[in-house]
Amino acid sequence: MKNYFSRISLARGIYLLLASIYAFCIIAQVFIAGMALFIQPIHWIHHVNFVHYFGFNIPVLLFLLAWIGAFPRWAYWHLFGLLSLMFAMYFTANITGKLPLGAATHPLLAVLLVLLSCFHVYKVLQLNLKKMKGAH
Q1: How confident is the model at residue 1 (pLDDT cuts 50, 70, 90)?
Q2: Considering the domain boundaries, does residue 1 fall inside one?
Q3: What is the number of structural domains in the chain?
Q4: Structural contact between residues 127 and 119, judged by C-beta atoms closer than 8 angstroms
Q5: Is residue 33 part of a domain?
Q6: 2 falls within a domain
């Protein structure tokens, strides 16, 4: 029986932690946008700046950890989806002047990003729990 703290298991554990942080950051980003809309417009600057801390950095690290952790193919597709949605978020945030209807999809993409990031954490948690049950 393999030791649970192998390279693969360690990478999967770190992956789960980072994927959870990413999902939390996406939810926080939506919350900050809500604060800007309903409380005080000064929060827009926080909304604009916060995404730069996690938007593309964490998914790139997740790709590396997915490779180290020998993740199944679905994990790579989820990450591709997260990165694509993040790119679309940047695009729709900056297209307002030229394509206002395209910019209006920004909050819809945010909902998709929240759903996919949370679903991804759920799937990775299932994978890790299945691995732990198999180790005992």
Answers
A1: very low
A2: no
A3: 1
A4: no
A5: yes
A6: no
pLDDT in the model for residue 47: 95
Closest of 92, 109, 108, 111 to residue 100, by C-alpha: 92
Residues comprising the chain, all counted: 136
20 domain-assigned: yes
In sequence order, what DSSP letters do the residues of 57-110 get, joined into one string? HHHHHHHHHHHHTT--HHHHHHHHHHHHHHHHHHHHHT-TTT-HHHHTTHHHHH
Structural domain of 64: 7-135
**Mean of the per-residue pLDDT values for the chain?**
93
Are 106 and 47 a contacting pair, CB within 8 Å?
A: no
| Rounded Cα gap, residues 55 and 101, in angstroms | 23
**Non-local CB neighbours of 109 within 8 Å, separated by 6+ positions:** 85, 88, 89, 92
Which residue reads 């049950």 in tokens? 133
